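It would be a great kindness if you could assist me with a short task in structural biology. The full record is reproduced below for your convenience:
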Amino acid sequence: MSFRLCLRLGILFMVLSALNPTAYADSWLPPKPESIYESAAKDARFIVTATTHPGSLLASSGAVYIKQPGTDSADWIKRWEAPLQNLPVTALIANGGWRVITFDSWYSAGFGDEVIVFYDETGALLKKHSLESLLSEPELNKVPHSVSSRWWRTKASINETLGLLKVEVAQAEDKQRSTKPLVFDLLTGEVITP
């Protein structure tokens, strides 16, 4: 290869690299073998167990435990155990363990149909959502992202009194940061505010 051809290819590569928007690399630790989430009243626990299968496929199961009613001891009763739709990055559990919500999938936060997953009091799938089903295209384009993930969620909380899940969605445009609230009915898992 001639010097001129190498020089031209090098310049072309630099120009194309400069035109490409910056993508930030992700750094994920392996998932913990077990993660425990407690309800606000500390009367229910959700335990996620991560499993690595041959070929490095990840799977997870979840189990809900509730405190023995009328006791102050640490006696926990298993309410349900089931495979999960995702290997959640985080989760919330309602007081009494009647509802569990998992968020995202390990190594690909913000992508897929399992960005928010609702499970009922028996561990059955109640409802699952993708970001595409919750946000308009302009809102989706404002979500901060990296190579493999969309860092969409800033806060999530359960309002036990109203039976609602509130999630704050990160929005960034021209160095301006804001959030968009999403509210879900805990009973059905349906979004109330689009």
In short: The longest helix spans residues 3-19. The chain has one domain: 26-189. The mean pLDDT is 86. The first strand starts at residue 34 and ends at 38.
